[in-house]
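Chapter summary example: a protein plus glutathione.
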Amino acid sequence: MSYTLYFSPDSANLVIRMVLEELCVDYDEEEVARKRSERSAAFFALNPRGLLPILVDHETGSSVFETGAILLYLADKHCDLAPEPRALQARAACLRWLFMLSNTLHADLAITFYSERYVSRLEEGRRVRAAATQRVIDHLELLNRHIEETAAECFLSSGLSICDFYLGCCVRWAQLYPAEGAAVTSTNIMSFSSLARLLRRLEQRPSVQRALEKEGIRGSAFVKPVSPLPPRVPDDVGTVS
Ligand SMILES: N[C@@H](CCC(=O)N[C@@H](CS)C(=O)NCC(=O)O)C(=O)O
């Protein structure tokens, strides 16, 4: 096997799995506990923050964590799903959106998922979640506008890229998590009409379908998805890492 993907169903590893499937590369997988506090010392040795996803490349001996970093590593190694570094204009567009997805949209989504970690009392988490939820909605409006303006088939006008899969999964999670108050409802996702149209097309891809099946996920991938997971119980107030 070329790679090992560390995963827990419907966590950030889902993006990586879609890209591995799209690239048609060999990989095996190692399932880890859903909660960071239940993960092994061996896992923490691969990522000191103890978070998924992690991809180990057996050909090079590299181990990569952080969703955006793994995506770029795979695209560069396989010369696919991102404009090559010398195509400077197209590469710049890919980099700016990839980083926006990673350090803005995904980061704010994480605050909605784990709002209790940013406060010292559980009740305060609700205010933090409400503020982060509004930010997620604002980001989706901006992304929707970008798709409307470029009128391209894919998120980047240069073609299908790692950004499509990352965007799709963020929009998925925005509708599902946290179970008691996800940022986007299955009704208002349709108000982001260009985004929904793009993701409807993307979720038909065989790579996306295979990735869902391998994580035991039923229903649509990106638009009006259904959660495969029981609700998470907040258990670690004030322990953001
Ligand atoms: N910025 C990180 C975020 C990773 C992250 O938040 N991973 C979550 C899964 S989606 C995790 O491992 N959470 C377990 C926990 O915090 O208990 C990345 O993009 O890789």
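Key point: The first strand starts at residue 3 and ends at 7.
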